[in-house]
Write a structure and sequence with these properties.
The protein has 121 residues and is an alpha+beta fold. It has one domain: 3-Layer(aba) Sandwich (Aminopeptidase). The chain is built from three helices and six strands. Strands 1-2-3 form a three-stranded antiparallel sheet, with helices on one face. It has a three-stranded antiparallel sheet with strand order 4-6-5.
């Protein structure tokens, strides 16, 4: 678990952002996946491309039962990334005083998603 940096393939010294896999609120027991990219990297699929192997690693290799992501309701781009990863909306709440939508995926759901999506295998 930890943070992974995202760099441009064309210009390797260009930092685009990061993906994380950490205990939720640094204490768990839930495990959170997240991504943050520089504005210049938005809209190119980098978040999905970087987060997909992290999600697969978390659920398959580490054997985690579930991973979660709390996303601001107005952040439609991150909601699309979560959806592309096979995560589904599990409810709304507040995290650190900010409204959020909880997205999650379990090991079983990943397996179901993999059956229909060659990119998740």
């Amino acid at each position: 678990m930890g943070y992974w940096s995202i760099f441009s393939k064309q210009i390797p010294e260009r930092f685009f952002g990061w993906v994380l896999l950490i205990p939720y609120d640094a204490v768990g027991p839930e495990i959170e996946i997240g991504w943050r990219l520089n504005r210049e990297a938005w809209g190119h699929g980098y978040a999905t491309e970087a987060a997909r192997p992290v999600a697969i690693y978390a659920l398959r290799t580490l054997g985690l039962r579930e991973i979660v992501a709390d996303i601001h309701p107005e952040n439609s781009a991150s909601i699309r990334v979560a959806s592309k990863l096979g995560m589904t909306h599990r409810g709304d709440g507040v995290h650190n005083g900010v409204p959020c939508r909880r997205y999650a995926i379990t090991r079983d759901e990943l397996q179901s998603a993999c059956n229909g999506d060659r990119d998740l295998r």
